[in-house]
Design brief:
- The structure holds two protein chains of two kinds.
- In chain A, a hairpin with a 3-residue loop joins strand 2 (32-35) and strand 3 (39-42).
- The two termini of chain A are 23 Å apart.
- Chain A is α+β, with helices and mostly antiparallel strands.
- Chain A has two helices and three strands; from the N terminus they run E-H-E-E-H.
- Chain B has helices at 6-16, 37-44, 65-70, 104-116, 125-132, and strands at 22-29, 54-60, 78-84, 90-98, 138-144.
- Classes of the chains: A alpha+beta, B alpha+beta.
- Strand 1 of chain A pairs parallel with strand 4 of chain B, so a sheet runs across the interface.
Chain lengths: 63, 147
């Protein structure tokens, strides 16, 4: 996704090396994705669902 | 002795032979206080041995703070995957690895290198269009473990 858009940055974070981040984002299982510190996506979703949920982070309406 | 088996080296060599452009791994490290930096360096050092399409640039988080900031890196070890075209111009793919790229993450690292090196991505045309239409910054952090 990052490669497709200059607006998107994607980070793969090794949770065991950064327990502070794992605690901050309540990572209790992997993979867990955090989008703009606003949307949490648990697990490995099909592409369409992942893209939709990731883009919902830009949605100004309440979740 | 390398970390990769001869069979794995052969598979990677084959995969890298299809790259149509070069990729630079910008490796962010620091001299003290980074227990996994050496291990990360050892892992990524396996790659340029297998192809001249992959190179490594080491950046010290403290001594090259401006460069680290430009890449949005504030923790080490970290990797940024950068495309290098035929003219030598560099293009940040905005793909980062934070922490040691071990286990399954090594596979993700290789896939990222191949993608930036010219392999066709797996996004559907519809999803690609949605992403290309994004006008605000999005940061996606994917938390993983090595196994």
């Amino acid at each position: 996704m990052a490669f497709a858009s200059p607006q998107i940055t994607a980070l793969a974070v090794e949770a065991t090396e950064y327990p502070d981040l794992a605690r901050k984002y309540r990572v209790t299982g992997v993979p867990k994705s955090i989008v703009n510190d606003a949307v949490e996506i648990m697990g490995a979703l099909p592409q369409d669902m992942f893209v939709e949920q990731a883009l919902s982070a830009l949605d100004p309406s309440p979740q | 002795m390398g970390l990769l088996s001869p069979a794995d080296q052969d598979k990677l060599r084959d995969a890298f032979s299809e790259m149509t452009s070069r990729v630079k791994i910008v490796f962010f490290t620091q001299t003290l206080g980074c227990e996994t930096c050496l291990q990360t360096r050892q892992i990524i050092d396996e790659l340029p041995v297998l192809t001249d399409q992959v190179s490594i640039e080491e950046v010290n988080l403290v001594l090259d703070a401006d460069k680290a900031k430009a890449f949005g890196v504030d923790r080490v070890p970290a990797l940024a995957i950068v495309g290098v075209d035929a003219q030598g111009d560099e293009s940040d793919s905005r793909i980062r690895f934070v922490g040691t790229p071990a286990g399954y993450e090594f596979i993700s690292l290789v896939q990222a290198i191949l993608l930036v090196g010219g392999r066709e991505g797996t996004l559907t045309p519809e999803n690609r269009a949605k992403l290309e239409a994004v006008t605000e910054p999005i940061t996606i952090q994917v938390y993983t473990t090595p196994t």
